[in-house]
Amino acid sequence: xxxxxxxxxxxxxxxxxxxxxxxxxxxxxxxxxxxxxxxxxxxxxxxxxxxxxxxxxxxxxxxxxxxxxxxxxxxxxxxxxxxxxxxxxxxxxxxxxxxxxxxxxxxxxxxxxxxxxxxxxxxxxxxxxxxxxxxxxxxxxxxxxxxxxxxxxxxxxxxxxxxxxxxxxxxxxxxxxxxxxxxxxxxxxxxxxxxxxxxxxxxxxxxxxxxxxxxxxxxxxxxxxxxxxxxxxxxxxxxxxxxxxxxxxxxxxxxxxxxxxxxxxxxxxxxxxxxxxxxxxxxxxxxxxxxxxxxxxxxxxxxxxxxxxxxxxxxxxxxxxxxxxxxxxxxxxxxxxxxxxxxxxxxxxxxxxxxxxxxx
Length: 360
Ligand code: SF4
Fold this sequence. Notes:
Mean pLDDT: 92
Number of helices: 15
Number of domains: 2
CATH superfamily of the largest domain: Hypothetical protein, domain 2
Structural class: alpha+beta
CATH topology of the largest domain: Endonuclease III, domain 1
Bound molecules: iron/sulfur cluster
Shape: globular
């Protein structure tokens, strides 16, 4: 049981120590040099599932191409996806775009200032609403993400699993109670940096930790036991076989439909199998015959094998390079789009395909 006095604060020693630590160790990041709510919102969405080192380049690229809400709202979705290309989790880009349009029509082209209005925007969850409300508008909302779960469950030795409603509620309440009234945005950034630099998922730097003396997990030698999770999420294995077709000056792409992963992004013709198969088995499949319909003179070579991890899926992928003689008539299935080799790089594609394109 956690003693309430440990975190019944505003002037908590934990908060004070954390803020002092942040004053000395905060990371220099481009979005910390601006007060512009639009830029802060973009940075928070980019960082949702992206490491900072990778996110910085995308932040510059995105805000250079779409410097304000109006420019983003006026862009075509394909342009937005193209700038996002390689970052993964493309629903973030689509939601940014839709939310920008919503703000232009419903909020006079500005980010709304209240937590509730931010939360109502497309793609904005509790974490992003709290981050933007506190950093851009100084509203007293504590962020709660994986860093915060980890730090607070260790500090207070919370045995309640964080993937249960009770565990989530407990951590959220503690996080909110630690928030200093005067500077919630600064505090939220402090705890994020602390989770990234000191109280890390594996091998936390307890020896350098200013909160060590208050940390119940450290005090009982139990750091590795927190946070507690009830369920391990199940990973679905999928087997993708992509065909990069070379037919004279043409190659072929297909557009993914609006359901499932990578909505509306482009990819090479794909055969998905229910289990791992080698090329000889693949060649005998109906899907292969439908795609290439016994074309003469076909030359197929294996180009690249990649394993691509998504949140709940592991995609085992083989890329094949298929050369069709220029004088052979190829009638591709109707869903394939012919394009030139040069234009291939103009289409928005998922990170997996992007990795392959970097090799050719
Ligand atoms: S002592 Fe270790 S586990 Fe506890 S807060 Fe500090 S870094 Fe995290």
